[in-house]
Amino acid sequence: MDDQLALPVGTTLDRFIMRKQEEFAYATGELSQLLRDIALATKIVNREINRAGLLGVPGTYAHQTVRGEEQQKLDMIANIRFIRALRNGGEVCTVISAEDKHLIQTGNTKGKYIVAIDPLDGSSNVDVNVAIGTIFSVYRRVSEAGDDGTLADCLQKGAKQVAAGYIIYGSSTMLVYTTGCGVNGFTYEPSLGEFFLSHPLISTPRQGSIYSCNEGNIDSFPEGVQAYVRHCKAQRYTGRYIGSLVADFHRNLLKGGVYIYPVTSDYPDGKLRLVYECNALAMIVEQAGGKASDGSGRILDKTPTDMHQRTPLIIGSRDMVDKVQEFMAKESANLK
Ligand code: AHM
């Protein structure tokens, strides 16, 4: 921790990654390279997003995603950019993406790592200039190196992540990540083409006063969640919901709050994807002192059975997540 504090605000991302690597005597530099590859792709995607309005890039393709939803052009561009950077970097044997049905083999059969990525989350917001994000998880492969990665490599529980992060393309672009020793945030300075440490060792408040959920769906929330929302109103908490997970999560991480996407009638298993969205944010929130649950257990302990599996998500300040769970447990006890 002291060493981390020694890195001042303004340290470049490259230098930060290098200094972190030096703290581990046996580190080979592969994870560092992988993180640099993601940062490089981020710069390119950031440029595409910033130019999108002028070039008329936003819009939908005629085809649908594997989830049966319309796919934005920028989704595809971001997907291609991240996969290409990870393929060129050489450290990753397999990528799985929210935008691809199948495992993407990079051809780097000696690569130790697997990356799960949602290249552009909240893409329905692209056309209206609302903050969007990229979410990624890094796992060490469980299969022997020397061949393609396997489905078993990709279906590890979130607790096995060796790194996780997100990028928010907002009023400024930020990359926030953890390798399991705290969470650090870097802000992009476009004129210099560099990320600089701006949010060292992020710690989320234990209790906040923001609740975030799509209240338009409240009638189909579980009764316990409905009761929790009533509780928030009675406490005069602030309701904030952008509908762009990374943006909602990022705000609550810094200010304190809880984000809830429970099961609903439209999404009986929850809407958000365990492997591409929830695991990474769960690792980050825990590293920052917060909590992530599916309503009954820890997100990071769920073993996925399907790459595109969905889950309910309650994530944010520790005491608020506990409170939601308490309300849910009480309601389910009442039903018995
Ligand atoms: P997407 O994968 O179609 O982009 O959906 C994920 C998004 C999240 O970013 C956001 O938090 C959530 O869906 C919003 O859903 P809703 O519009 O149902 O509130």
Give the CATH class of the largest domain.
Answer: Alpha Beta
Which molecules are bound in this entry? 2,5-anhydro-1,6-di-O-phosphono-D-mannitol
**Could you tell me the mean pLDDT?**
92
Number of helices: 9
Count of discrete structural domains: 2
Overall geometry comes to globular
Give the low-pLDDT segments: none
Q: CATH homologous superfamily of the largest domain, by name?
A: Fructose-1,6-Bisphosphatase, subunit A, domain 1
Number of strands: 17
Sheet-strand content, in percent, reads 15-25%
Distance between the termini: 47 Å
Multimeric organization: single chain
Helix content: 25-40%
Strand order of the largest sheet: 4-3-5-6-7-8-9-10
Radius of gyration: 19 Å
Structural class: alpha+beta
Along the chain, the helix and strand elements come as: HHHEEHEEEEHEEEEEHEHEEHEEEH
| Biggest β-sheet description | 8 strands, mixed
Q: What do you see in this structure?
A:
The protein is of the alpha+beta class. The protein folds into two domains: 13-199, Fructose-1,6-Bisphosphatase, Chain A, domain 1 (2-Layer Sandwich); 210-335, 3-Layer(aba) Sandwich (D-Maltodextrin-Binding Protein, domain 2). The chain is 35% helix and 24% strand. The chain has helices at 2-6, 13-22, 30-55, 73-89, 151-154, 223-234, 245-255, 274-287, 318-335; strands spanning 60-64, 70-72, 92-97, 104-105, 113-121, 132-140, 161-169, 173-178, 183-189, 194-199, 210-212, 238-239, 258-261, 272-273, 291-293, 310-311, 313-316. Strands 4-3-5-6-7-8-9-10 form an eight-stranded mixed sheet, sandwiched between helices. Strands 12-11-13-17-15 form a five-stranded mixed sheet, with helices on both faces. A two-stranded antiparallel sheet has the order 1-2. Helix 3 (30-55) runs antiparallel to helix 4 and helix 6 (223-234) crosses helix 9. The mean pLDDT is 92. The structure holds 2,5-anhydro-1,6-di-O-phosphono-D-mannitol (AHM). 2,5-anhydro-1,6-di-O-phosphono-D-mannitol (AHM) binds next to helix 7. 2,5-anhydro-1,6-di-O-phosphono-D-mannitol (AHM) binds at residues 69, 121-124, 214, 243-245, 248, 271.
